[in-house]
Amino acid sequence: MVGKKFNFWRIFVYLIMIIFAFATLYPFLWMISASFMPLREIVSGGMRLIAPDMSFDSYRHIFTVTQFPRWFVNSFVVASIGTLCNIFLNTMAGYALSRLEFKGRQQIYYAFLALIMIPGQVLLVPNFMLLNALGMIDSFSALIVPVMVNISYIFLMRQFFINFPSECEEAAYIDGLGRLSCFFRICMPLARTAIATQAIFVFMSFWNEFIRPMLYLRTMSMYTLPLGLQTFQSRDEGQMWNQIMAAATITIVPIIIIYLIFNKYFLIGIRMDGDK
């Protein structure tokens, strides 16, 4: 009787999970399908995944007529450079706050705790005024420089290096490595799980950022993908939903690729056994 009851609840839970997965996955599949549909099929109100007259016309249009390829390159450049800067600076700052002894370390740590409580939206206007005074408006540096460092990921790396086995560093020092060489040749490679987790989220934040590009960029050729997608919805000829769906489908491809590349490190997270 207990076994039957257990099986019933397990089947019930699986059924709920399947329904939830379908409700989550279906809009994503419809977006991909709609990118191949003619506009008349989309605006007719149907929600079927397969329709007659499906073609690559929407993709051909956005790659040949619009500035979508330029926007894609812009987003990739900004996200890649921003992610690399964050990985190095956040990791080095986390290492310094956890492993180095210097005057004022605790005060810096408490200052970071206070700063992390400030909402990012509060800093938009001061950042705009500062970047405008420096002549950085309408440039990629306006999107990268203010967020080259992220306090949340400094804490992530700090917590990782607090639990980092000191024997690894001691062995490196015995072999003649200095502090900087030890960091780049020993600590960073062994911190790849935490760095991969950081890289995924930082890249996603740069890739999906809309507010700052909208405030800081003026020239259409400098737009990033989220800002460029917004122009698809505000054109004079109306909203071409098939082209919007095609652009949105291509936009999510790099995120999926990044996740697949770092998937195993992401699942491991920031746990590290002592024998490593």
Report on this model:
This protein is an all-alpha fold. It has two domains: 1-55; 67-275, MetI-like (MetI-like fold). The protein has 15 helices and no strands. The protein has helices spanning 2-34, 39-43, 57-64, 68-99, 105-115, 124-133, 141-144, 151-162, 166-174, 179-190, 192-208, 211-216, 225-232, 241-261, 263-268. The longest helix is centred in the first third of the chain and has 33 residues, at 2-34.
What is the 3D shape? globular
Beta-strand percent range: under 5%
Low-confidence stretches: 270-276
Order of helices and strands: HHHHHHHHHHHHHHH
Task: Specify the structural class.
Answer: mainly alpha
Entry summary:
The protein has helices spanning about 1-35, 40-45, 55-65, 70-100, 105-115, 125-135, 140-145, 150-160, 165-175, 180-190, 190-210, 210-215, 225-230, 240-260, 265-270. With about 280 residues, it is mostly helical.
Produce the secondary structure layout.
Elements: H1 2-34, H2 39-43, H3 57-64, H4 68-99, H5 105-115, H6 124-133, H7 141-144, H8 151-162, H9 166-174, H10 179-190, H11 192-208, H12 211-216, H13 225-232, H14 241-261, H15 263-268
Helix pairs in contact: 3-14, 4-8, 4-11, 9-10
